[in-house]
Amino acid sequence: MNSLLTMNELQVREINEILKDAHSFAEGRQWAPGKKLFVANLFFEPSTRTKSSFEVAERRLGLDVIHFDAETSSVQKGETLYDTAKTLQSIGVGALVIRHEQDRYFDELKGKLNIPVINAGDGCGNHPTQSLLDLLTIQQEFGSLRRLKIAIIGDIRHSRVARSNADALSRLGAEVVFSGPKEWMDFSLESGSYENIDSAIKTADVVMLLRIQHERHSGDSSAPDGDYLSSFGMTKERERSMKPKAIIMHPAPVNRGMEIDSELVECDRSRIFKQMENGVFVRMAVLKRAFEKAEGGNIYEAHNQK
Ligand code: CP
Question: Could you tell me which residue ranges the Aspartate/ornithine carbamoyltransferase Asp/Orn-binding domain spans (predicted)?
Answer without folding.
Answer: 148-288
